Amino acid sequence: xxxxxxxxxxxxxxxxxxxxxxxxxxxxxxxxxxxxxxxxxxxxxxxxxxxxxxxxxxxxxxxxxxxxxxxxxxxxxxxxxxxxxxxxxxxxxxxxxxxxxxxxxxxxxxxxxxxxxxxxxxxxxxxxxxxxxxxxxxxxxxxxxxxxxxxxxxxxxxx
Length: 159
Known about the structure:
With 159 residues, the chain is α/β, with parallel strands linked by helices. The protein has helices spanning 13-22, 47-57, 71-83, 96-107, 112-117, 139-151, and strands at residues 2-6, 27-30, 60-63, 125-129, 154-158.
């Protein structure tokens, strides 16, 4: 089994889906709080369009809202970004405050064994999705690292 992650920023529609297919993704796990993106450049990852396209490609879709950061976490990270004069799309790392809050509120109660048991037994490649380009600037890297360590599973960030 392998865990992958992907963000949408920096991809066009064809490249995004081609990358998923080349990686052999069988299950696409959406970990966004809001499953929409503003602007037409990334409209293809708005929930319904995304789910329809994944279905066409034979990739299962799953929404895991328990793994989405809370509004308070997002606001706290935004305040730190603002104080450091870093635009959200230019952020290269998450703040230690965000990481700690996310680990305590989202990952600590998440049962990775139960998650794996809930999957189709033939699922071998899982992809966690959010929007940021750089995995280190997004909570999806925290999820992947947690599962990778907890389950001794290989992790790959699709760029």
